[in-house]
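Renewal narrative, Specific Aim 1. Our central claim is that a sequence can be written position by position from structural information alone. The example that follows is taken directly from our test logs and has not been curated for this report. It begins with the structure tokens describing the chain, in the order in which they were read.
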């Protein structure tokens, strides 16, 4: 059947709420979301099997992005779709995939790793999987309360199967973390299987349409063949066949970190669309006292808050794609047995996931503030976008913990540089910094990129020197590392920013050769604005580590203000170009037609508190007091 997918989904009535979901109870929210999730899943399956086809020019990602409008929050099957299947596809053997990856599978799964006691430090995970060679089974067990799994999306009520991360024991030897497929609920009755204690963890700051859950195993047995065996095997006699790299088990986290960068770009484009369109409609105060009130978008300070959000959305889209292509390349190499590029990919994914999530949540909040009081309304959708975005700072690798992973990589190259050993080309600037081969400052995108590299070198050196000093003072390495950790995370953050600037600028310059001249001008203005913004934000670091002068900073400031003025006439066009439908934006402030106040009033009329002219609490609580006082 040939179907225009967007319209098809938009026309499925059950997917769209009459009552805004904020007015539903915790239970109703889940039930409403799960109803919709299975309609969407059916559409995705039909797309997958070719039973329906897309006829518009866009890609199936549209089906995913339109979900933001359907759920307003999050699809409770996100982990089933995004992590469960992809982990099986990446980590299960060919035979396992043939058995488990059936389009009509009864399994609704989730990814179960985090425990009550351990999230970041996954080597500390306490759930065990002990091989019993007499029955050819693994015994999954939760030894104590802290080992209860806690957080996985969809686990609370929806999933009947899961991929569980547990410590593998064979004949008393621990072989570390491995992934196992476990059925947890009966496929027919949906009741938890014997030996399974499972439930939902309760309301959260966001993600309340997803049933995040807890799970404990009481000596729950699964077949040996349920361990994911593409990269590592346990044979029938209990022989352990090691993987080619001991972190291949962490592959799903790596992939999700890469994917998240693009998802965050999309969240940023939603927030920018709402705030920019609203700022074009909203008038507040004249600029000159004898003039009418101006669109708030004309205030330069408002442009400063918003244009960086537009630019950042482009940065993360471009860098997300760049990382996606790197991931594809490295995965193909790994397939051929070459693990050489994995450490670099991991280091890049860690710092870019950390900084993209932190930037995105800060900028979404900035967009909310830029909408004044109306941005605080749930109907603006900015609070929901913020709650969704800020969760990404924590899940899939917590911010600081990931920055410290990248710091290990930077310190390795600094050590090589300090010992005058050969460096890869992309770290040649470490050697230049040591030899004090400083370039003369240039007030240009290329100059700023060089300046950021000098900051990375300077901060890595400072962290490394502190580390060495701690070691010389007799500290053990881990302790010395912890003592230097503030400086180490600073170095990683700078590294991420230098990558973002360099990749974005180079990709924009390349893209500019392929589009019309007028579009190229706007794209380059946005890219330049991004670099100038961060150069000004980090001017203290530039003064410390590069050859920039006070005069240069003043010139940067002028150019930055010039760019704000140049972008202003295109601001609304730029957010319209994100092409996000009103049904997905779900915002009274950001709709395409600009009917902000009308929509706000329409939404207010849906409040249950407006159902009765006089609420019954008046008779119960207010009147007895106010009337008594009158007497
Ligand atoms: C779903 C996708 C679709 C769309 C996305 C959109 C939205 C998403 C929406 C919702 C998301 C909801 C779900 C969230 C799910 C989760 O959160 S799942 C749980 C995630 N948990 C974590 O991320 C835990 C973080 N911790 C770790 O990753 C590790 O503990 C660690 C911090 C990396 C440390 O590991 P470990 O202790 O084993 O390591 P060390 O012994 O210290 O050795 C470190 C060396 O190992 C190298 N390393 C580490 N990880 C990797 C890797 N993945 N690949 C390659 N190499 C790795 C590291 O470089 C060190 O190397 P060395 O310096 O040479 O020693
Ligand atoms: C919305 C949401 C969805 C989630 N979905 C899933 C899921 O589907 N499946 C799943 O398995 N998990 C899931 N998680 C769990 C998530 O992966 C963890 O919360 C995350 O990995 C952080 O771990 P933690 O909560 O234990 O934080 P902690 O590690 O306890 O962090 C707390 C603080 O300690 C600091 N800290 C910890 N270790 C170090 C260190 N070595 N050095 C310096 N500082 C440190 C951190 O920086 C942080 O400030 C989800 C979480 C959320 C919020």
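The sequence written for that structure reads:
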């Amino acid at each position: 059947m040939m179907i225009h997918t967007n319209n098809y989904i938009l026309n499925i009535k059950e997917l769209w709420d009459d009552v805004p979901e904020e007015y539903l109870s915790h239970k109703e929210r889940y039930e409403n979301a799960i109803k919709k999730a299975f309609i969407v899943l059916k559409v995705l399956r039909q797309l997958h099997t070719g039973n329906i086809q897309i006829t518009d020019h866009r890609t199936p990602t549209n089906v995913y992005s339109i979900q933001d409008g359907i759920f307003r929050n999050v699809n409770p099957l996100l982990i089933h779709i995004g992590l469960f299947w992809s982990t099986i596809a990446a980590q299960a053997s060919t035979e396992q995939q043939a058995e488990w990856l059936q389009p009509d599978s009864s399994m609704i799964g989730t990814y179960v790793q985090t425990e009550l006691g351990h999230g970041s430090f996954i080597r500390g995970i306490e759930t065990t999987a002990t091989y019993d060679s007499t029955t050819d089974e693994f015994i999954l067990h939760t030894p104590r309360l802290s080992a209860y799994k806690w957080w996985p999306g969809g686990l609370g009520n929806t999933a009947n199967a899961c991929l569980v991360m547990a410590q593998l024991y064979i004949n008393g030897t621990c072989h570390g973390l491995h992934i196992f497929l476990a059925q947890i609920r009966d496929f027919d009755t949906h009741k938890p299987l014997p030996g399974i204690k499972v439930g939902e963890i309760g309301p959260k700051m966001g993600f309340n349409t997803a049933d995040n859950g807890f799970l404990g195993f009481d000596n729950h047995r699964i077949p040996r063949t349920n361990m994911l065996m593409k990269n590592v095997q346990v044979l029938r006699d209990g022989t352990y066949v090691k993987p080619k790299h001991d972190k291949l088990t962490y592959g799903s986290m790596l992939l999700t970190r890469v994917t998240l960068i693009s998802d965050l770009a999309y969240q940023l484009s939603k927030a920018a669309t709402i705030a920019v369109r609203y700022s074009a409609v909203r008038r507040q105060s004249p600029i000159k006292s004898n003039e009418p009130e101006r669109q708030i978008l004309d205030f330069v300070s408002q442009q400063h808050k918003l244009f960086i959000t537009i630019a950042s959305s482009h940065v993360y889209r471009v860098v997300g794609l760049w990382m996606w292509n790197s991931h594809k390349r490295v995965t193909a190499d790994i397939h051929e047995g070459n693990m050489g590029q994995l450490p670099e990919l991991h280091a890049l994914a860690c710092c870019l996931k950390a900084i993209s999530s932190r930037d995105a949540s800060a900028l979404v909040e900035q967009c909310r503030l830029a909408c004044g009081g109306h941005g605080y309304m749930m109907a603006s959708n900015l609070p929901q976008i913020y709650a969704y975005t800020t969760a990404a700072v924590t899940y899939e690798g917590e911010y600081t913990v990931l920055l410290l992973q990248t710091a290990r990589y930077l310190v390795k190259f600094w050590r090589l540089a300090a010992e005058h050993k050969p460096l890869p080309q992309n770290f040649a600037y470490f050697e230049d910094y040591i030899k004090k081969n400083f370039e003369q400052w240039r007030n240009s995108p290329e100059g700023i990129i060089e300046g950021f590299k000098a900051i990375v070198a300077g901060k890595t050196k400072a962290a490394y020197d502190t580390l060495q000093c701690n070691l010389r003072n007799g500290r053990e390495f881990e302790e010395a590392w912890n003592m230097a950790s503030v400086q180490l995370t600073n170095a990683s953050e700078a590294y991420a920013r230098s990558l973002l600037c360099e990749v974005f600028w180079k990709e924009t310059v390349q893209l500019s050769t392929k589009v019309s001249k007028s579009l190229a001008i706007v794209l380059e203005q946005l890219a330049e604005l991004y670099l100038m913004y961060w150069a000004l934000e980090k001017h203290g670091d530039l003064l410390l580590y590069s050859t920039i002068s006070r005069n240069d900073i003043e010139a940067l400031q002028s150019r930055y203000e010039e760019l704000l003025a140049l972008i202003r006439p295109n601001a609304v066009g730029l957010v319209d170009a994100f092409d996000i439908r009103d049904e997905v934006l779900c915002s009274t402030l950001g709709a395409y037609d600009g009917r902000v106040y009308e929509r706000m009033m329409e939404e207010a009329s849906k409040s249950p508190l407006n159902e009765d002219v006089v609420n019954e609490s008046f008779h119960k609580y207010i009147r007895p007091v106010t009337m008594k006082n009158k007497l």
